UniProtKB/TrEMBL annotation:
Identification of the protein by name: Rhodanese domain-containing protein
CDD domains in the cross-refs: RHOD
Family matches, as InterPro entries: Rhodanese-like_dom (IPR001763), Rhodanese-like_dom_sf (IPR036873)
Annotated Pfam families: Rhodanese
Cross-referenced PROSITE patterns: RHODANESE_3 (PS50206)
Rhodanese domain span: 42-139
Length: 145
């Protein structure tokens, strides 16, 4: 019994220790505001799919973002809004999903895009979403009225 408990404890410690090093990947690929800003500044091939509602998008969004107004991506109507954006995407470039907070809506959009055949390796969620953007540090890639 002691051996079993010791083995379980050792396995738990290994999982905790290695999870911080990316060995056990999460369900969703995330991208930071800093990395996203660099892609925009350097005109790297990237598609920014913004799912914020229209009022939030109009108040602030990233340069080059494709507005979908699909948030919270729960209904067929909201998913249809993503379909129009998917039709505009290239075949190889990374896709950054911009959500109000980088949570459930972005995850639903990510899952939906995967169900439409977009490879997981191309999909990223903006960490903390538009509301979590570090406005005190990065303003040159924001569009405001």
């Amino acid at each position: 019994m002691r051996k079993i408990i010791g083995t379980i404890a050792l396995a738990f410690v290994a999982v905790v220790a290695f999870s911080g090093f990316g060995i056990f990947g999460g369900k969703y690929n995330m991208i930071s505001a800093e990395e996203t800003a660099t892609l925009i500044r350097e005109s790297k091939p990237v598609s920014l799919v913004d799912i914020q509602v229209e009022k939030e998008f109009d108040a602030e969004h990233l340069k080059g973002a494709i507005p979908t107004y699909a948030y919270p991506v729960k209904s067929d109507e909201e998913r249809a809004k993503l379909d129009s954006a998917i039709a505009k995407l290239g075949k190889d470039e990374p896709i950054v999903i911009v959500c109000p907070r980088g949570g459930g809506g972005a995850e639903k959009a990510y899952d939906y895009m995967m169900s439409k055949g977009i490879a997981k390796e191309r999909l990223f969620i903006l960490t903390k979403g538009q509301q979590g953007w570090p406005r005190d540090k990065i303003t040159d890639v924001l569009v405001k009225p």
